[in-house]
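Recall the central idea of this unit: under ordinary conditions, the amino acid sequence of a chain determines the structure it adopts. In this exercise we apply that idea directly, starting from the sequence alone.
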Amino acid sequence: MFRGVEILIYVFDIVNMDADMQRFEDVITAVEENSPSAKVFVLLHKMDLIYAEDRFRIFFEKQAAIKGRSSQ
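Accordingly, the structure predicted from this sequence is:
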């Protein structure tokens, strides 16, 4: 699984992101083991559902959580 991957684009649904975090960790682990030079991009989908005044705060909180769960 994930052999020969050059680019991975992982899309989180911001509303259900916490529930998807374990799957993200598993995918990142598999990519690191099988395609260590792959570039990984993470997108946060449905940010428009977050109140405008909370978007930057929530974005940076989720960014920190993603970085904390991956070695990149």
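The helical segments are 17-34, 55-69.
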